[in-house]
Amino acid sequence: MKDLTDEILIKGLKEQDSTSIKYIYREFFPLAKSIVERNSGNYQDAEDLFQDSMVVLYKRLTREEITLKCTLKTFFFGICKNLWMQRLDRKWRLRFSENMAEEPVESYEITDREFNEEILEKKRLYLKHFFALPHRCQKILMLFLMEIPLKEMAGRLNLKNEEYAKSRKYQCKEILRKRIKNDPECKPYLIL
Question: Average pLDDT, stretch 100-116?
């Protein structure tokens, strides 16, 4: 199959053309898969993320006239990355929420509000600092967000024991917190 231009893909997606959809799946699915795998997810998570991202892309393209300032693939990558980080952020917040039982992790619907510039800017800043962490810290925090028990975390990462895993998790969280707190770009969004 030849390469299809963004214009053809957008038109095909709006018309639900199977050739365009198959092309997007073949060319874009590896993006979703790489985001999920780098952040402690599995193949099923990648498939779910891809489907959710396709729904968001379709809604964005059909509800409003979008002028892309990048390639469709880059735009799709941004959607995938934001949705995955939202899921991880949601797991994080629910883990520390006093009302944990009120709202299950997977029961939210994607709304246009989530694409609000302020929310995207907060996520960009968070991701900037998260991805600046040492790779080991990223892995530890991802496993923590996925609620992997410390014993299993220690085994997966070849750490000495649970206590060491707990200590490393705390250190990584503190490094991330300090970087965010000390970044002047983050100041408007911090609740002190």
Answer: 43
